[in-house]
Every structure is written in C-alpha cells, then in structure tokens.
Design the sequence.
C-alpha cells in the first residue's frame, strides 16, 4: 500500500525555493486538490511575478505567466476564452496581489469572475530580496523598512480578506496558514473548496495562505513558523471571511 | 466581399473584427475610439461573443493576453493615453509570441493632450513603445474601407506569425463615415498547438511565457524572433503608389494626411508640378525598398504627418539620405489643409527651404 506519493499534478522539476520556504507545501496542496478533483487536463494556471513566477515549471497543467499583479486579468481572459472547459487559477504573492495588482484583484472579485485565486501572504517581497510588502506588519524590519514599518509614514498593512469581504462579487474568501499540520489540513480543505466552487460555477474564490519567508525574515525555518504563529496570526486572523453560498444555505 | 454599408470608421473596425472571428473584446472608454467598445457591447452578446469593459487599460490588455494564450482571436482598442497604459501588456504579448490586435485611434499628446486627431504615436507604434527588443506589425488605414479590410488583414497576420498587430488610425478615421464593403468569407483558421487550452491529458503542458533567466536562452529567443521579423519584412510590406511614374517630388504620407496630400497633389499636377505619393500602408514593415528606388529618380521628398516629424526619420533611413526630405506637419489635433501641403510642394519644387 502506498502511504505517501508525489501528486501527479507536480512535475519532476526540482523546486528553486529556499530551504524551509512554505511555497513547496502550498504547491503540493494545490496539486493534491487538482489530482483529487480530476481536473489536471482542463486546468490552466496563471503565474505571477515574484518567487512563484516559475510555478509553470512545477505543475503539469498548462500555464500562462502574467505581468506583475495582472494575473487576475490574464486569468479572466483564459477563463472567458472557454468558460465551460477551462479551470483557471492564479497563484500570487502579497506584492503581486495586494500592491501592484490591487485593482485587478478587487475588480476580478467584483465581477465574480469564476476563477480561483491562491494568495500567498508572507509579509515580504521574497524574490527581490526582502523589501516591505503591502502586508508587512507594523514594526516589521525589512530591507526597505530598516527601522521597522512605521505606520505614521508608510501606512498600514492591507488585509485582503477583510477588504474583499466588502466586495459584493466575491463568493468565497478564507484565510488559512501552513504553520502546523492541523492548519495545513484546513488550508487544503479551503483550496479544494475554492476549486470546487469554480467547477460548480460559483464565482470568485480566494484563499489567503499565511506563510513564511525564512530567508528574508532572517530566521531558521522552525523559528519562522513560530514567528508566523506569534505575530502574523493576530494581525491576520484565520477563518472564513465570506461564503455567500453557506450564507444562503443558512 | 458583400454588401456595401455606410459606417463610421470605428464601427467598421468592430464589425470587421467580429467577421474575422474575433469573439473576445476588452476595452476601456476613451475618446475618440469609444464607438468600438459601444459597437462591441451591442453586437458581441448577439453573436455569442464576449464584450467586457475592464477596470483599466492595463487590465484590458492582460485579458487580451489571457485569451490570446488560450488560442482565440482577441482585440482591444484605445486612444493614445490608453495605449501608453497598455504598453506593458504589449511587451509581454510580444515576448510570449501570442497573436492579438490592438487598435490605436490616435489623439493629440503628450500627456492628456487633446481629443482631436493626431499621428503623434508613430514612434510608439513603430519603434516598439514598450521595454525590450521587439516589433509589431502596424497597419495604417486611410479610409473607412481600410479600417475594415486592414482589421481583417491584421487578424490574419497576427495568427500567421504569432505576433501582435496594431491598427494605427486617428480620430478622423475613427469618426468619419464612408461607404464600406464588409467581408463575407469565412476567416482562415490557424493551428495553435502552443495554446494553453488544458492538456486534456493528451500532451505535455503548454507554457505561455516571456521569462528566460538564462541569458543564452533569452538571446536565442530574441534571434529567433528577429528571424521571424525578417520574414515579415520580406513578405508583408504594403503601400500605395499614386502618380509616381514621372514624379520628381515624392510625398510620403499615411492615414488621413495621405487623403489631404492627394488633393494637394492633384492641384499641383494641374499647375504642372510632377509630384506623386508613396503611402505606406504597413508602417512596420516600412516600405523601404520602393522609397529607396524612388530616391533614384525624384529630386526631393516631403513627409506629411500630424506630428513634429516622426515618420520622416524612417523616410530618411529608407532613402539613405540620397535626397532632401522636407517636413509638412500640423500637430496638437490640427490637420494640414490641402493648401498648406500644396504650398510646401510648390516651395520644394522651386528649390526653396533647406
């Protein structure tokens, strides 16, 4: 009996992510969901600009690489090219989705675009070497907030799920984390739901995954997970922020 | 070709696009091209197509990228300031080698400029206009008929070469009404084995991408792309020659100014001046060869444009500066009158200026 195997929807390409980076876990969860839903052959991913830009090499499904922040717009095009036969997801980081791509994110949600968005929030720009992100916590030290994020001068972090929960078009919003086994299980369930919603034609579903960046946080992977738990989860509380169908079912 | 109808230039583009099998349109309102969006909003639902008003020009061009990647005919349209916003997406479309059409119904600039017609985006259209080494096919219609027929052509060229094409029109062309005969033949279908339509578990995954982190690979990709551009330069140049057989002066003009120039040429001919015109229809690839040959028998060239002299640089390059090239221009939304062009022809004929 096989107790553990690589998801079929992941290629054999070695991941370029830093040791301890949680992108690997999240990639795996997405791949497991694609496998379980049997949608690999009709899924098209949209890669962002950022650490996960090369996601197209890691998944066995078709992929389009989008300009920075524009993944929801590109996904809109791919989806609308053949809505019956395309399952489309974006995989975006915090800088991509919540800074340069804010408009594309909000309006894809407003249109209830029938796509799935995987939003990886690790509170920092990873690929460019650790600059302040729209989700960097108050006081958090980064390369471009060397004295800690000063909310008096650079403002406050953007809470994406809270923000989008006020957008009528958004169908399903959940914030999860990948810092522990129970949380990883919940994250997978949320990702699966976000894909199932698209299959069922329910519209814009976003899963925010609170994750780590040990390299740019300057921590060991283990310490990073602890830091996430102690600092990020109070600012970014986990849970379902919107589920219009659950509300209707009540 | 079939029925003849009276249409606005902008509407002719929209109808021709639908007839060319373009069932996806994404746009954002901006004067003087909004009739294209309005026409699409009305027609697309009736033909089973998609019209979507995007939240921005940036989003619209990226939606275009998405549909193009999925292998379907797709377009967006805008006017000058909006085209600037699309330039990022146009670079990605070019770097990903997917076919799409962008229409620019130009207005005066820079900045917010004005809403009157202009040709001041020539450089932006023809020289790339976004980051990176790349070219796009640029078609310049000079009648409502050409607004339609060049739209058909633009989709065919886009698919044939997997390239971004652009219709470079201006506010006059977009707004004026003329009779137009619309295409009734079925559009040619091109195979797109690279399209991201889902693997259907029958092939390796397709990736539409412009990222090449290894410089050797990126260089190779650029070389390949430019080999394709060379083929286009050799095969797809389009131009119109007007009274060039015995011409001593050659007017070079595209789009609406070529119409004005024609009137001036007729009047100049009546005065005994041997003047003709070469009208580039493709601005890239530019009709270099015919211009170069004309330089062997003409004594001077006049570039008539609605900008401060942009195409004139390509004319000089084309004729290798063998003969003087004069500029006749109005800018900022002003259109040169036939009298102004005639005056320039007479001046150049008498050996004046420069």
Sequence:
């Amino acid at each position: 009996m096989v107790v553990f195997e690589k998801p079929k929807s992941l290629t054999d390409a070695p991941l370029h992510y830093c040791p301890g980076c949680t992108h690997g876990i999240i990639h795996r969860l997405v791949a497991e969901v694609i496998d379980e839903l049997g949608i690999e052959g009709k899924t098209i991913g949209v890669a962002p600009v950022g650490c996960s830009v090369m996601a197209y090499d890691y998944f066995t499904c078709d992929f389009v690489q989008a300009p920075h922040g524009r993944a929801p717009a590109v996904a809109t095009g791919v989806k609308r090219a053949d809505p019956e036969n395309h399952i489309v997801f974006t995989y975006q980081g915090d800088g991509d989705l919540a800074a340069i791509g804010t408009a594309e994110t909000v309006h894809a949600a407003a249109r209830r675009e029938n796509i799935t968005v995987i939003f990886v929030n690790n509170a920092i720009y990873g690929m460019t070497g650790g600059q302040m992100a729209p989700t960097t916590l108050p006081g958090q030290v980064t390369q471009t907030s060397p004295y800690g994020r000063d909310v008096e001068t650079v403002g406050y972090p953007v809470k994406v799920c809270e923000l989008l929960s006020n957008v009528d078009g958004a169908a399903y919003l959940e914030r999860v984390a990948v810092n522990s086994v129970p949380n990883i299980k919940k994250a997978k369930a949320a990702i699966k739901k976000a894909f199932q919603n698209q299959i069922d034609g329910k519209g814009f579903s976003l899963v925010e995954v609170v994750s780590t960046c040990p390299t740019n946080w300057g921590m060991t992977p283990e310490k990073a997970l602890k830091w996430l738990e102690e600092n990020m989860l109070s600012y970014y509380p986990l849970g379902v922020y919107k589920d219009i169908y659950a509300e209707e079912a009540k | 070709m079939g029925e003849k109808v009276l249409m606005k230039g902008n509407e002719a583009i929209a109808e021709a696009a639908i007839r060319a099998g373009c069932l996806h349109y994404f746009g954002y309102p901006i004067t003087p091209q909004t009739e294209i969006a309005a026409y699409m909003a009305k027609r697309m639902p009736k033909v089973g197509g998609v019209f979507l008003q995007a939240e921005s020009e940036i989003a619209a061009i990226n939606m275009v990228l998405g549909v193009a990647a999925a292998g379907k005919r797709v377009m967006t349209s805008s006017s000058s300031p909006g085209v600037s916003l699309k330039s990022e997406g146009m670079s990605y479309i070019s770097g990903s080698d997917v076919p799409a059409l962008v229409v620019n119904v130009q207005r005066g600039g820079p900045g917010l400029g004005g809403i009157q017609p202009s040709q001041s985006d020539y450089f932006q259209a023809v020289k790339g206009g976004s980051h990176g080494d790349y070219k796009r096919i640029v078609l310049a219609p000079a009648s409502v008929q050409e607004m339609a027929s060049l739209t058909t052509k633009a989709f065919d060229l886009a698919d044939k070469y997997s390239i971004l094409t652009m219709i470079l029109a201006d506010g006059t062309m977009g707004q004026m009404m003329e009779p137009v005969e619309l295409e009734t033949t079925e559009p040619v279908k091109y195979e797109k084995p690279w399209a991201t339509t889902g693997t259907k578990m029958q092939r390796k995954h397709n990736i539409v991408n412009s990222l090449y982190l290894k410089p050797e690979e990126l260089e190779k990709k650029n070389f390949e792309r430019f080999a394709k551009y060379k083929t286009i330069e050799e095969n797809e140049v389009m131009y119109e020659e007007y009274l060039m057989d015995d011409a001593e002066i050659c007017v070079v003009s595209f789009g609406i100014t070529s119409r004005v120039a024609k009137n001036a040429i007729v009047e100049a001919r009546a005065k005994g001046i041997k003047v003709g015109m070469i009208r580039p229809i493709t601005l890239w690839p530019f009709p270099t060869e015919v211009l170069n040959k004309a330089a062997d028998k003409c004594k001077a060239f006049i570039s008539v444009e609605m900008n401060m002299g942009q195409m004139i640089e390509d004319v000089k390059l084309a004729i290798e500066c063998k003969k003087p090239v004069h500029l006749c221009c109005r800018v900022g939304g002003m259109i040169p009158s036939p009298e102004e062009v005639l005056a320039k022809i007479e001046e150049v004929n008498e050996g004046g200026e420069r």
Summary: Chain A touches chain B at residues 11, 40-44, 46-47, 53-54, 56-57, 59-67, 70, 73-82, 85-87, 103-104, 106-107 (CB under 8 Å). Chain A has one domain: 23-249. The radius of gyration of chain A is 17 Å. Chain A has eleven helices and nine strands.
